[in-house]
């Protein structure tokens, strides 16, 4: 079978490696030379394209993995539409990685896939649009709504070492996450099956307060926990994007994913995931 991975970055390269190991022909669509090198390093073919500007001549595929982000502006994923229009045929399997941000702020309540979307930022509304486009194009596609993705070289190590403050948990909400290896494994499994539903929360199912996550990582680094600041102070110090994430609080259930896929998480406990990520982390300069 042919696996086509649109936006073959960190997660996509991990999926590409699994597809190569399964005997698939694999094409990873990337933009940069560095990304192309990483795709080729796992035995896949790299196709360098600018999805917004280049004429798109894409190969037919049996498995489509769409991991490219939407454009930076607007409320529509025109980038995805260009890709879908360029595909010669609807694939047998299609997987799109979206974001749990489509739920918006839920006041710390538990969220499952039956919770209505309530995107409160333009960024999240682009993701809602992308989900709709993918499912309209391929009715049997699987949409994976991922929260914060962590893993090797995807940790806030510099912030902790620099003593950058975080919002006090008393004024903040809940955070959810998934280790990048688990996300890639779930995506690959979704690309080889038609599960009972179309939308799944791709999260480890163990939400925590943000401070717990940062304190645990600080302990592994052998440094002091980050200082806490109030919401009023955060509004003065943090970027508008960071504040937009902090304004939303929800606890995300992954029960549907567990029930339908049978997947067993390698890192359901973020502490184990942090430890493995630190061991694999590239050394700091």
TrEMBL record:
Primary enzyme class: oxidoreductase
Molecular function in Gene Ontology: 4-phosphoerythronate dehydrogenase activity
UniProt cross-references to Gene3D superfamilies, sorted A to Z: NAD(P)-binding Rossmann-like Domain
Record's keyword annotation contains Nucleotidyltransferase: no
UniProtKB keywords: Oxidoreductase
Keyword hit for Oxidoreductase: yes
Listed EC numbers: 1.1.1.290
Name of the protein in its database record: SDR family oxidoreductase
Species for this entry: Salinisphaera aquimarina
Upper lineage: Bacteria, Pseudomonadati, Pseudomonadota, Gammaproteobacteria, Salinisphaerales
């Amino acid at each position: 079978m042919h696996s086509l991975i649109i936006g073959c970055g960190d997660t996509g390269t991990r999926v590409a490696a699994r597809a190569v190991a399964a005997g698939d022909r694999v094409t990873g669509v990337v933009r940069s030379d560095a990304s192309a090198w990483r795709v080729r390093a796992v035995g896949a073919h790299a196709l360098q394209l600018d999805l917004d500007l280049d004429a798109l001549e894409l190969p037919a595929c049996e498995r489509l993995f769409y991991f490219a982000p939407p454009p930076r502006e607007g409320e529509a994923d025109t980038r995805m539409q260009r890709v879908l229009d360029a595909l010669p045929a609807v694939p047998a399997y299609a997987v799109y990685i979206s974001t749990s941000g489509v739920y918006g702020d839920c006041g710390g309540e538990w969220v499952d896939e039956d919770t209505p979307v309530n995107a409160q930022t333009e960024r999240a509304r682009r993701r809602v649009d992308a989900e709709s486009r993918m499912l309209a194009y391929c009715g049997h596609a699987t949409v994976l709504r991922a929260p914060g993705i962590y893993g090797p070289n995807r940790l806030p190590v510099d912030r902790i070492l620099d003593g950058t403050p975080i919002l006090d948990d008393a004024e903040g909400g809940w955070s959810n996450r998934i280790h990048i290896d688990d996300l890639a494994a779930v995506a690959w499994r979704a690309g080889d099956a038609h599960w009972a539903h179309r939308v799944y929360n791709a999260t480890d199912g163990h939400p925590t307060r943000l401070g717990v996550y940062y304190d645990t990582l600080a302990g592994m680094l052998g440094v002091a926990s980050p200082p806490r600041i109030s919401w009023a102070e955060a509004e003065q110090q943090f970027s508008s994007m960071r504040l937009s994430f902090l304004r939303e609080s929800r606890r995300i259930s992954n029960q549907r994913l567990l029930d339908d896929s049978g997947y067993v998480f390698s890192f359901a406990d973020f502490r184990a995931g942090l430890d493995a990520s630190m061991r694999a982390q590239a050394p700091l300069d």
